[in-house]
Amino acid sequence: MKTSKAFYVPVLVVAIGLVYLSINAFNKSKTNQNSDIEKNILSYNFALGTQTVGSKYQFTEETMLVETAKEIKNMGSNLLKFSMHPRYCTENYGLPKNDKITSLTKLATLEPSVKEVLDMDFKYYHIWIYGFSQYTPEPMGKKDDTTQIKFINGYPEQYKEALYKEVYNFTKHLLKTYEGTGKIFYLGNWEGDWHLRSDYDRTKPVNVKTLEGMTQWAHTRQKAIDDAKRDMEYDNVEVYHYIEVNLVAKALNEPDSKVVANSIVTKVNPDYVSYSSYDATNPYKEEASLNKNLKIALDYLESQLSPKQGLPVGKRVWIGEYGSPSIHYDDDMQNLRSIWTIKTALEWGTPFILYWEMYNNEIKKETGEQVGYWLIDDKGTKQPIWHTHHNFYKEAKQFLKEYSVTNKELPSFDTFRKKALDFKSLNPTY
């Protein structure tokens, strides 16, 4: 039977159409796959990060909090550490006072700069939280950290109940507001041993009632977060609690002395421990001694924790602060000493290594000189350690991209941290 040419034309058109649709579907699928990979890379835990608290200068008309958060983002980081407490308008950020802000949840919703940074494209948030329910305003012009904690010489029941409610509600707010974003919030405290010894005298024995009160305070915060998570249904967002410590060397050198690490941490068993690590980093002038002593301190802190269900696999101790001020070191040595800490922490396996900080927060009273805990100095100059972070993020993203192409998945954190030790950014030649 003869087939007319008229028959072939529509068949050919259909065939070409099917091929076009297949190619288009393939390309679309590939584009979506690449987009997913890129999104996963940008939300990966790069370990390195920094923070913004109490900066002494700024360069734009934006609020200090928003300006520094944007600088952290522009550097390449997906982590923001800042503070939320009743002194938001008098200390750290100088934000406008709003009498309607009477809780952490209201601070998160009614203060525009706080809401803006919480809404920004950060994956990880480390936040020092202090309850409005615990605050007694200081005299004008004076700073007194004990005004935002009520466990000195014991913790009254009314403050405990009020704190529980405030942290519980704030946790629920975070879980509800940021559900589906993938954000992870770590809620904790500033250097806990200076709360336990509020006179900053590490030589004195601890006040037993203050120790008991602070233990109840930390337990209340952990329980409030746990209970809020238990009572809510949520997806693709998470909140954890941490306790920050800073006098670890005292515990190691004076085993009978009481510090947060060997008393409160062991009793509360928080989700995580943050280590403000100056007593294990700054005394040492050589990389080998810093490496040895920091690992001893990290091992000790890990030993104070008990196993806990419901947490991601991995270490539960991180570096919450480290840094070498420029008042004592030139730019290159400041960078090099920071790299010693970074590499030691990566070798040990800490999930976070947080440099203090984006802009310097300390000025010498006698001379008005900037102490120089900075990534960007008071003249707007990006320091070598800024470039170390910036280049590290670029190398990290390139490695993750290449790894995902080869393995069709992103590497484990252990694989990443071991590879990161060889990044050029962490191996400068001086």
UniProtKB/TrEMBL annotation:
InterPro entries: GH
Residues passing through the membrane, by range: 7-26
Keyword terms of this UniProt record: Membrane, Transmembrane, Transmembrane helix
Protein name: Uncharacterized protein
